[in-house]
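Model it.
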Amino acid sequence: FYSENTGMIEYLFGIYPDPAEGSYSFGFMATNVEQSRVYGTEIEFALSGSAGRFTNSASGGYVFMYPVEYDQHTGRNRDVYLKYRRMHSIKLYLTTEYRRFDLGVSLRAGSRILNIDDVFLSELTREAILPGFYDYWNESRSGHFLIDQHAGYAINEKLKISLAVKNLLNTEYMGRPGEIMPHRNFSLRLSGSF
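Modeled.
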């Protein structure tokens, strides 16, 4: 895929004036990035089949993305990454069913975030906004790998009980600054159709 944007807007976090009071405070402001390009490719697959009494399926995909600003006068990329994007992401889902039982696992991985707002990295503002984030960013900005698992049993044609574990390895990762994603979570569910 390829997309080229003119007049693209990103919301940037920073210190901005309050027009009503004339004071300055932290917040988001819509900012024109001017021109941007997003190059990439996406590959997906899905397989299914049976082996004896087992019904198995596998699906997944890979996404490569290169999101950058470009100069409209030269037509060249500036190699300034758009904010809060990842270059690589991979997903793999595996499931198997045997009689009334089903078991599945989900594997997901994402590369590091390419770029964030300067206000989170600037020596003048970083500790005022998110104390400790700058050190965390420098130590933990690698990508992430997650495993989710589920198991279920069909009690009868109308009732099913299942157990799911999200983030099985309790991986700590970040969606954006200050947003640590959910830790390991167990859920037990009874579902039915009537």
